[in-house]
Every structure is written in C-alpha cells, then in structure tokens.
C-alpha cells in the first residue's frame, strides 16, 4: 500500500519529557512492507523519526490544516512516488476536516466530510444525539446577531459560544449577558460558531473502541481535574481513571447510547459528558483525547487501542 501520514505533532529526544507516543508511526506502520509518505508542517517534521531511506516521500507545507495546502501536497507525493494513495492517516483533530476533503476530492478511501462532521461539527453531533432522545445542552448554530440574542432570551445566561469545529477550548467564550454577546460579534462573524447553555458539573471523559455495529468492546472512564475552559485560561488540566462503581456504570451506559446513535462506526469513540445532575453529552469524537487521558488509559490497562 501507499500510505500518506499527515503529521503536525513534534517528537522529543533530549531527555525525559512528555512525548506523543501515539505518533510513533515508525513502530506502528511497517515502512518496509508499505510505501509510507509524510505531509508535515515545520513542527511536524520533527515528529518523523523514521530513517529517510524508509520514507517514500515527504512534503512540508506552511499550513497543515489548510485543504488547499494538503491537497497540493498529496498530489505532489503521488507524482513523486508514481502511484496513487491507498490510505491517508491523521491523528490530529485540527486536520481531520481538511484530510476528509482531500480524500473526497482525490478518491482516497476513508471517512469523507459528511462522516467526519458527525464527530467534528458540534452542531451536527448534537443534532444526531438529540434526535435519538439523548440529553444534550440546549444549542443552536449561530446565524446572525439577532438570532443569538433570541436564543439567549429563551435559554438564559450564562451561555457558551464556541467554534463548531474547534478543539481544546480554543476560541470558547463564556458569555454572561447581552452586552458581552453583542461585543463578541463586533469582532467576528457569527457563522461558524455554536451557542449553547452553560452547564456546571463534573466533567468525565470516555476512551474506548467500538465495532462496526456500534457496540463498545472496550472503554475507560476518566474524570477531569479542572476543565478545558480553565485550561485555556492557564490552569493545569489532567485526568484520573474512575474506578468501578455505579457512577462509572451510568457513564458507560450513556456512552454506549451516544455511540450507538451517532452513525459513526468503528475506530476510537471519545465522549465528554457532564455527570451532574445526570449524564449529558456535549462533545464526541473519534480520536484520542487530551488531558493525559490516553496516557492514563494506557498505564491503567496496558491497552493503547
């Protein structure tokens, strides 16, 4: 196979420090049995530790989350190697959307834009879960200033405004009143944002693996220490694995309900939920999450799937 890996993650070799073990591509993918090419940005180039003699081709781009840049790079890789791309892989949520569009435009197998929207577009993922009768925050896609003010009048403050395809609480705003909401729209257009009710409670996170029928065969529940919004403001963020008990069972049952109904089969489901006063989903994905949850899961279970 000709496999293209899109990488934006660095790797570190100077002593003991945090490293992204899930990007050890040279260990996970046989570079001898397959032709493996890389598309990277400047930082991502430091994360490619396979010997250059084992790499079919490598192209560096300025903006690795740009569809135009990625499509041009994959086209260049195809021409250099002299054969079509069979698979394109990315492990960063920041590049999932662009990679999906590249797959679609170049006819590469794998999730396309519609499937990726199920776990990248925060409005779409909540629509699917709400239609299935699962609890989600009151939400709406932002269309214009007056529409968001009308939502605020109906739902009440405080509210959260966030990019529909954001990650890591980047660009998330906690809005307390009409003045703050109007002020936010003075600096940006509402399109591309979601508005939702602000829910307090303990945030839990679930990592797992689901089969093609949506059945979760493995999952680990973690509890966040602090929260993502606080982390964006400079506070530390971590997680601890939740031990067996009724709380963990309730969250596992809720996660299974979410995964079964969101039409996103197989791979790695991750679900964020607030457990107070009851489980309520506010995000889901198909990639390993942050807050050291993957590292805790691997250490606790010896499973990195």
UniProtKB/TrEMBL annotation:
Superkingdom to which the source organism belongs: Bacteria
Key words, A-Z: ATP-binding, Ligase, Nucleotide-binding
DNA-binding keyword on record: no
Pfam families hit by this protein: CPSase_L_D2 (PF02786)
InterPro entries: ATP-dep_AA_Ligase (IPR052032), ATP-grasp (IPR011761), ATP_grasp_subdomain_1 (IPR013815), CPAse_ATP-bd (IPR005479)
Residue intervals of the ATP-grasp domain: 126-177
Chain positions covered by the region annotation Disordered: 269-295
Stretches with biased composition (Low complexity): 269-288
Keyword Nucleotide-binding attributed: yes
Protein name: ATP-grasp domain-containing protein
């Amino acid at each position: 196979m000709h496999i293209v890996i899109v990488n934006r993650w660095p790797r570190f070799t100077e002593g003991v420090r945090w490293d992204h073990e899930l990007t050890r591509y040279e260990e996970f993918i046989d570079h001898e049995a397959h032709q493996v090419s890389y598309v990277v940005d400047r930082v991502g180039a430091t994360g490619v530790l396979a010997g250059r003699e084992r790499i079919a081709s490598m192209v560096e781009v300025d903006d690795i989350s740009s569809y135009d840049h990625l499509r041009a790079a994959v086209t260049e890789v195809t021409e250099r190697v002299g054969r079509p791309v069979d698979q394109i892989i990315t492990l960063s949520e920041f590049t999932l959307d662009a990679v999906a569009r590249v797959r679609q435009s170049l006819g590469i197998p794998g999730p396309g834009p519609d499937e990726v929207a199920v776990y990248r577009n925060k409005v779409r993922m909540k629509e699917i879960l709400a239609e299935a009768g699962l609890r989600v925050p009151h939400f709406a896609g932002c269309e214009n200033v007056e529409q968001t003010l009308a939502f605020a009048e109906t739902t009440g403050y405080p509210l959260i405004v966030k990019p529909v395809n954001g990650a890591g609480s980047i660009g998330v705003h906690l809005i307390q009143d009409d003045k703050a909401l109007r002020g936010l729209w003075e600096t940006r257009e509402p399109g591309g944002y979601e508005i939702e009710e602000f829910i307090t409670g303990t945030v839990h996170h679930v990592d797992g693996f689901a089969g093609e029928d949506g059945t979760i065969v493995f999952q680990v529940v973690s509890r966040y220490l602090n929260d993502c919004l606080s982390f964006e403001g400079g506070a530390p963020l971590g997680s601890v694995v939740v031990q067996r008990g009724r709380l963990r069972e309730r969250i596992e049952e809720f996660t299974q309900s979410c995964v079964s109904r969101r039409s996103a089969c197989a791979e790695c489901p991750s679900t964020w939920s607030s457990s107070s006063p009851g489980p309520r989903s506010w995000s889901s994905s198909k990639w390993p999450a942050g807050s050291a949850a993957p590292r805790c899961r691997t250490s606790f279970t010896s499973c990195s799937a």
